[in-house]
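tool=predict chain=A
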Amino acid sequence: MPPSSPSLAAFFEKAFNADELTLALAPLQQGLKALDAAGRNLPHPIFCLQVAQALERLNAIDDVLLARLLEKLPNREVEIRALWAAPLQQPKANAAPLALRFWDPGPPPLAPWPVLGPVRHPDLLGGRDADLQSLLEAVDQDPLLITVYALSGAGKSSLLMAGLLPALGNARRPAALVRQPNSIGLLHELARCIVQDQPTFAPDDLDGFLDLVDQVGLQAGAAPVLVLDQVEEVFLGEDTRARARLGQLLVATAERGNPCRWVLAYRHEFHGRVRFLLNDPLRWCEETRASPPPRLRGLEWPLPVLGDARGTADRLEHAVACFKDAMLKPLRTGHYPNVRLEEEEARRLAEAFGGAREGEGGDRDAPLTPELQVVLERLRQGAGPTRPQVLRVPVDPAEAAALLNDAIAAHIATSLAMVVDRLYADEPADTQRARRTDALLLLAQLVDEKGRRRAVPVDDLTQSVGAAGQALLRELRDERVWLVRVERLDHTDHATLPHDRVAAEVHRLITDPAAALARELDPEVLTLWRLVTSRTAAWKSHDPGAVVLDTDTVAKLRARWEALPRTAAMSDWWAAAQQSWARQERTRLTGVVRAAPIETGEPLRALHALRTDLGLDGAALAEVLRAGLSLDADRRDDILGTGPAWISEDERHAQISPLVVDLAPHVAGHPQPESFWGALLAAADSLGSPDRAADAHAAVVRAMRVARGDPPALDAEDGSWSPVIAGRFQVGGFPEDEDVQRDETLHPVVLSPYRLARAAVSVAEYRSFSRSYFASEKDDWLDNLPAFRLGWWEARAYAAWRGATLPTEHQWEVACRGGGVDGAYARGASAFGDLASLERCAVLLTTRKHLAGGDHPAKVTQPIPGAPAHPLGLHHIHGNVFEWCQDWFAAYPEDAGADPAAFGVTPAPATPSAMRVLRGGSWLNPAAFARSAYRDRNRPSLRDNDVGFRLALPQPVDAGT
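tool=predict ok
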């Protein structure tokens, strides 16, 4: 027996210096110290193994050191030679035995052929006897590892689960299998497969795991076989540390002297990457022995796919025999007495499969195992509920071969239809199409950008698809469908597809619009899904262009976003894309506001988009409209006041009213704020009725009064207003009038009660609203002049601030004619009845002589020289200054009705030449312009010395205005 560890440790410390121990015997030294700390005085199997490994390593470093060791320990030579020859000692009698677990495939499934799944029971492993025998022989050679690689769907998993592991279980040899070994809990998963007790070592404790493997091998008398299936997942997962963990595990196993055997299975296209990963353990084996024994070498074994006839004389016949055996073997076991497939029928179908593999035009690399499963399952389901189910294969070879064509695609389409029909049978066809598309997109989340399957945590998947998607997921996991399977990785359930053949078909449906239409899917949703997934991948790769989208695409994504399953990365990309689009769109829309033709309605539409699509608040919108180098105040006002004719009344109410409400509080600090407020009031007026305009109108009035203070109170009885006017009147030019114009068509009108101000608004009155108005002029003579050099916008703003309105042109004309009072004013042009007499109404004659020696109007209270008093007491209703009216200029309607045009809509199409009505003539115009029926007009932004305004007051006065 070997010496106790303390004495052997003491000897090593005396026989060699510290440097030699560190260099040559570091593993042994660590093991001895651990045993000393535990107070163990008797040798232990693990200690013996460590001694043997240390001696092997010492031999590889320097044979002289071994000779020195034997010279200094002449009485220990036998014991050391024994350790060298037999490093794995049987456990001591008093060591606690482990409860070993051996592979048990369990009972065979209810159906003889799985649907797109690997075979898990040995009774179903048809056509693979030679492959299984080759694999068992390879394992018996005791290599460090075996790599098994082949095409996806070639049957690797089936061969391992239904062949290798059951065979090892029958031989009472411990074996474990873990699929997709990219989990940090890999060591625990392997341990649970070979022992019944829960692991006591940490998930990342390599030494603890290998100690357990040592014990299992000692107790079972053979090294356990540890199988890692789908090793390619360590390259596809986001956790790059998975490859490092696997490499460290294999190196540590080799350094322990191969206490187990590894079998690594993966897709053939990953063989180069797996070989690179295996370089470390294989190189360690080669460097530590001049001639590595067979058990330290890796064995690469490219697995033949089912039906592959490599090395045989008749490849086609071999393939046919393999496929026929795979169909009939499950039925020969006696587990499926209710399913019958005659030899001849199986032969016909096997010939179709063999021809697809080895016949003329066949694809030798095509792994037909999945197609075989779905075809057989379809034949079984087509046999109906009778007992026994007799499977019938078409006699015509072409019809038999047709069963293979598009088998996976047809299975997916049939399964999706079955799932949707099960959940939404009573829904309309459009809803069913949408749900089929939802189901396909759910599957698409389990496919990477190269068309291969990937695993996604079930919780993440369910969160991305919503309630309807979760119902679909439950159905897709059903064993009768089995398009989604769930595996445990990193202590978390992950969803994945059965294999890459399904992933490839899902990828084709997603990327091929014609295929999507043929399967009755929603092509627009699929197009958007492709866009989102590709852009998300590019964005995660730090491609700045991945978030650049045009407006149409953003609109489509916003409309259909809820129909798309969304991962966290997709949602983050969408947020970044919207931010990028918002920046671009804000720049673009701001350019439209500042430069696009107003008559198109585009500037106002752009403002609406800035508010609704980009979420700009009133302050930001006001900045977009700030008058400056590229946007003057007149254009700003025209955009708001003349732009809304391009949309319907309902759209105006939905779009214009909130825009006005948002902008109103942010006007005061802008250039020409009075006209800005007036333009907002004009936009509110365009809503079609006082009721619809109420909120917007009130918001502007409130903002003006906050900025400019409360106006003087209005008193209808203070003598500054006409008597109340109301009733039915004739408006327009009378036939006997001189110089009647074509646009003065005589027509009836009914007016609600109102009063008209006796005089135009004075300069002093307007200064109470706008302190900047004539701020440099301090002469008292100016205060009593009518306010002039003001556009319609300013007049409208002042009227609303005061709580009044501008008169409509019908109200102005009726009041001008005396409001129905009998006399000359009731008919004709004026109190004088002829144009020549209008000269005495302070109207300049055609000779254009200026009054009072100046180029300005007369004072608002100055009497008309030699003229009789106006019946309603109005001053300068003829001449002096033109007066703005509420209305847009347009032809009189045939029947004007009641209170026409008070809230008239901009003439369509809205153009920069849209005009507001002017009435009454001026000191700068001929007498004919001062006729009561004469209609003039101009741009709302006109600011001339001969243009002013007076107020109207609806009755009764609305205290709220």
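The chain has a mean pLDDT of 81. The first strand starts at residue 145 and ends at 150.
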